[in-house]
């Protein structure tokens, strides 16, 4: 019994210790955003890696999500003769929830794992220690560009996901469910407001910071060898996904 309680206490202490380390890590990362030098070339490269190279997976995810949402909505609303509500459900669901959340989960899987593995490999192979011996600020050179790139690119990725997702719903509704194109578009944009789009963009900013900060933190604190790099990579994806779903609830509850 005492051994069991001891293990619980150790887990609790370790958990709180990691929270403190994560808070300090984010403080130093944010602080380095407002000091020189600024590595614009590295930031631009990370924007390319995180944003541009993620467009295919974001596009495929969004278009099939919109298509399936239209089909499922039709299956339900046709029972109540409310098929005209399908465009409203598609546009509001994608801009408010599905666009930012699914984009965040896809970026966490693709980018978060890559960041954690890259920085984790640098840590276990002592490349980060080598940078420190050269008096290079590791936060400004490695951490900050990735976090800043994630924050800047996520809103654009979400906007693209919203457009492609709505397009997927439109294509299915018009060419498969035989909706009138003009009526569908009218119902789509009649009930869309800037508050719906802004909600998704706010979530995108938060998700971009969550994904990059958690991934950088896990990679930066990797210890050991290849096994540890794999472990921190898994942890980055898992914790980023959980935090995205958790923060999605809190942001939604605050905005609506």
Summarize the structure.
The protein is mainly alpha-helical and 256 residues long.
What do you see in this structure?
With 256 residues, this protein is an all-alpha fold. It has one domain (46-255). Helices cover 85% and strands 0% of the residues. It has nine helices and no strands. It has helices at 2-33, 40-50, 55-77, 86-124, 127-133, 138-175, 181-190, 194-220, 226-255. Helix 1 (2-33) packs across helix 6, helix 3 (55-77) runs parallel beside helix 6 and helix 4 runs antiparallel to helix 6 (138-175). The longest helix has 39 residues, at 86-124. The termini are far apart.
Radius of gyration: 22 Å
The portion of residues assigned to helices is over 70%
> What is the string of helix and strand elements?
HHHHHHHHH
Mean pLDDT: 86
Number of strands: 0
The total of helices stands at: 9
Structural class: mainly alpha
> Could you tell me the strand content as a percent range?
under 5%
How does the major sheet shape up?
none
- Rough shape? elongated
- Domain count: 1
How many angstroms does the end-to-end distance come to?
47 Å
Uncertain spans, ≥5 residues at pLDDT below 50?
Answer: none
């Amino acid at each position: 019994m005492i051994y069991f309680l001891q293990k619980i206490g150790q887990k609790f202490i370790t958990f709180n210790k990691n929270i403190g380390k994560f808070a300090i890590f984010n403080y130093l990362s944010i602080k380095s955003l407002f000091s020189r030098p600024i590595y614009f070339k590295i930031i631009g490269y990370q924007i390319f890696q995180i944003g541009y190279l993620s467009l295919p997976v974001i596009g495929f995810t969004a278009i099939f999500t919109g298509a399936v949402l239209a089909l499922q909505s039709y299956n339900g609303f046709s029972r109540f003769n409310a098929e005209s509500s399908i465009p409203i459900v598609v546009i509001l669901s994608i801009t408010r929830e599905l666009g930012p959340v699914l984009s965040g989960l896809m970026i966490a899987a693709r980018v978060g794992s890559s960041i954690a593995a890259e920085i984790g490999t640098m840590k276990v192979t002592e490349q980060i220690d080598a940078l420190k011996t050269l008096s290079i600020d590791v936060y400004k050179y490695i951490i900050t560009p990735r976090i800043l790139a994630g924050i800047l690119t996520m809103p654009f990725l979400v906007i693209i996901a919203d457009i492609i997702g709505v397009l997927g719903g439109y294509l299915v509704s018009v060419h498969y469910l035989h909706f009138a194109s003009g009526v569908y578009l009218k119902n789509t944009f009649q009930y869309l407001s800037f508050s719906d789009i802004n909600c998704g963009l706010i979530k995108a900013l938060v998700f971009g910071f969550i994904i990059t900060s958690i991934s950088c933190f896990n990679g930066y604190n990797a210890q050991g060898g290849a096994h540890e790099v794999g472990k921190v990579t898994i942890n980055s994806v898992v914790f980023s996904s959980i935090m995205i779903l958790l923060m999605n609830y809190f942001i939604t509850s605050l905005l609506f």
